[in-house]
Design goal:
five-stranded mixed sheet; 6 helices; alpha+beta
Length: 194
Amino acid sequence: YDGTYEGWLTAVFEIYEYKLNDIVFAKKEASATLLFSNNHLVTTDIAKAKRVLAGLKSRLSSEGLEGIYKAFLSEVSQIEEIMFRFVQYVFSSSKNVEQDFGNSIVLDLKKATRLTRKEAHRMEAFVRFKLTKDQLYYAIIEPDCDVLPLIENHFKKRYADQRWLIYDAKRKYGIYYDLENVAVVELQFNFKLN
C-alpha cells in the first residue's frame, strides 16, 4: 500500500473484501521477505477507507478510534499488523474491547498509542524556532514518531501571529503556517542537526 493511513484503511477493507489470509503489510513496494508470497497491490480508495472508519466508529469510543491513528503514526515495527489484528478483534467482538488489556494486541496497540502521544507532547514542549532573514521561524526536528499531524494545531494556536515551518528531517516533510493556513510541504534538504 502507499504508506498512508487512508491506504492502510483501504487495505483493511480489501482484506475482508477478498478474504485474504496471512497478511503482511508492505509500504510502497513488495518486501524482499515476501518474495515467495502472493502480493496484492492496494490503491488508496477514500470510499473504502471511510467504510472501515464508519465500522470502527460504531464499535469504539472516539479515543479508541483516535488511538488507532496514533498507533499508525508511531511507526513501531509491524504496527500495521498489530493494528489489523486489533481491528479484527474489534469487528469479531460484540462488546467494546478497548480496555481488554489481557489481550496482547490491545496492549501492544495501547503502547504504540502512548509512545506517539508522549513524543507529540515532547515536541510541543521542546521545539525551538530560529528566525531567517525573511522573517520565517523554522525548526528542524527528528522525532521518533511521525507527530507533525498531531502537533500542528498546538503551534498554529501558540504562534498564530508569525509564519513558521517545522521540518521533520527523518521523514522529509514539514508543516508550514502562512498566518492563515497550515500546509504540508515536502522538501529535500541536506541539513546537519547539532
